[in-house]
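explain this.
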Amino acid sequence: MGDYNIFHHMPWSSTYSIYFFTIGISAALFFMSTLSWYRAEFRTLRASAFYLSFVLLAVSGLLLIGDLSKPARFLNIMNPAYLNFTSPLAWGGLNLVAFGAVSVAYFFMMRKNDEGLSRKLAVVGSLLALGLPIYTGFDLTVHQNRPVWNTPLMPILFVALSLVSGAAVASFLAGANEKLLVMLRSFMLWSAAAVGVMLISMLGTTAYGGTGEELTFMFMTSGTLGMIFIGIGILLGTAAPILLLLAPFGRQQGGVMLAALLLLVGGMALRYSILVGGQIVQTYF
């Protein structure tokens, strides 16, 4: 009799965790640029936040296209007859294209100093930007047999991760602008706290679920993945920045910068852990 080896691969490669990271920051930075039209503290971020948002949007698109076995397939999102409108991926693709188009229009209106139209495009772009982390969360949560992924918290968690990562990047763009740093510190503090609460809820429901959930909990809290998820994502990249921002040093520029760096490292670790954690059990059976 012959011997057979069955290899179970993860259909969602780690590239997607980088995509989740970059597209989330892109969305949040566009939102920061929009705030500049309504809050004076954000005015210095208007151009720099938008430019970096657009660069990260382009990087995110290239990551998605590069991950396709046939990269030219991305053109299918331009063909309404091809799209499956019951799939979050279809709406996500349309959202990406629409956000890119509005971003280009926003750029030209800012260059023309057309304040009225720039404001309107900024609001439309912010609504489309909000859809980016929401749809990435829905991409995961619709998988009914994937522990960790299949929770209604996932789209909300991705929005919170987007906001905290975007505020962290914006703090590096803010320089020594004290009023802006105060606002960004609040964004980072409250959104990181929201992420922490949702992670605790996710861990609790996973730990006391069925066999698949319990095995996933074991893998995500022990070994290499446990070090990334618990050690880097939760402790170093979420809990430590919150404590730092609450301390007197966290109200100074150096403290805000350090907290921002930790939040970015933690944000990437969390996205990677969630992506891999939902698929890891299948690789053993």
User: Anything to note?
Assistant: The first helix runs from residue 15 to 35. Residues 31 and 132 are 12 Å apart (CA to CA). The chain has a mean pLDDT of 89. The radius of gyration is 20 Å.
